[in-house]
Amino acid sequence: xxxxxxxxxxxxxxxxxxxxxxxxxxxxxxxxxxxxxxxxxxxxxxxxxxxxxxxxxxxxxxxxxxxxxxxxxxxxxxxxxxxxxxxxxxxxxxxxxxxxxxxxxxxxxxxxxxxxxxxxxxxxxxxxxxxxxxxxxxxxxxxxxxxxxxxxxxxxxxxxxxxxxxxxxxxxxxxxxxxxxxxxxxxxxxxxxxxxxxxxxxxxxxxxxxxxxxxxxxxxxxxxxxxxxxxxxxxxxxxxxxxxxxxxxxxxxxxxxxxxxxxxxxxxxxxxxxxxxxxxxxxxxxxxxxxxxxxxxxxxxxxxxxxxxxxxxxxxxxxxxxxxxxxxxxxxxxxxxxxxxxxxxxxxxxxxxxxxxxxxxxxxxxxxxxxxxxxxxxxxxxxxxxxxxxxxxxxxxxxxxxxxxxxxxxxxxxxxxxxxxxxxxxxxxxxxxxxxxxxxxxxxxxxxxxxxxxxxxxxxxxxxxxxxxxxxxxxxxxxxxxxxxxxxxxxxxxxxxxxxxxxxxxxxxxxx
Length: 512
Hints:
The protein is an alpha/beta fold.
């Protein structure tokens, strides 16, 4: 039985203008949820509602807000299996990965519940007597958060948890193809005791969301925008917020490189490439884009990698598989376009390409009518190829070669993204030289390009983002603004830089 869900604004159901059907990508004829889609006016209204609710929420002491975050973590933990099964049903993520995604919410709550007692400011010495200086973290106000559906609950928690902890109200627009998972997460957050209007969820398409965000920015009811999605849309969000003198926290796409040095443990490198390239069917922003392998170990690596990909299990995401289906039909259509980027000078070393069907099976698996696609490894990609330069959101990985580490770093930076990266080596000098030269916000040594922990900064540079960071203490700078206060108790006006006492040194003094 499919669910019927609508937007919730100020604790009340909002009117819908159209209906979207969220389907199970493993069985596309199965409707997971019928989603009432809102328009731009509803989004703008949600921001006004949030602005009113935020004033009272900000007055709640931060340690008490931290206790609410603790309750969210316990509620999510108690509902782990049910929420993970819903994620698997709605977007086809393998159940083991879905469990890990839900665990990420709990980890995020566990980290931030204590930050309610650590929203520290500073007492700063003044250059004048009888005067004290202080700094405070204040909430920004209302945060509009727009998230993708490949991580329908974990990534939103990176925004929602710290934003709420810091005393902000939130209007959250999840991906419509993951609406049921988002709605379930919203219910868990509200059950923790959040007042009406502090967290609102709006289901809308991209165009209506953008128009609604523009209206809200015009009205001054949004003070921060968080966006996870494509680089193309991220640019538009950045331009829109910039026109209104607001800032956006942008977490965008990636073309994440993995460098394989001559001294690498090849079996370990293959394991990392397999998981980061084809886990979640290659639909992570941190998924492996191109393997940059030293020419001396190229053949050995490619042979092992192709064999591992051939042996990997693709299929029903409720079972033990490396990957399930693609997220949604629109991503399947886009992925089929990426396959047309394979050129005559490329070599597909992994076997069949395209959709898995009875006429194009993967072993004894015929795809069962789902959005399943063959994992593809393309050797011989070159700088300038679209497969080398552009993000390919799906199960396809390119391979190229290099001669020196400096050349590898240059190749890794060439596409202009800067999210995640990896190097396999047993030489610490190689690891630190790579870290120094790579433009990515995240670097792994002898590990895959995928895998974030709740207490480390997550985010990218270049086409991957605007340098903002999520997770850990660093995200507090996204959802608070520093306020400076000076308190002069001298009883007279003391003018900074003008009335400062001066002690005159004898700079001509020399030792005899």
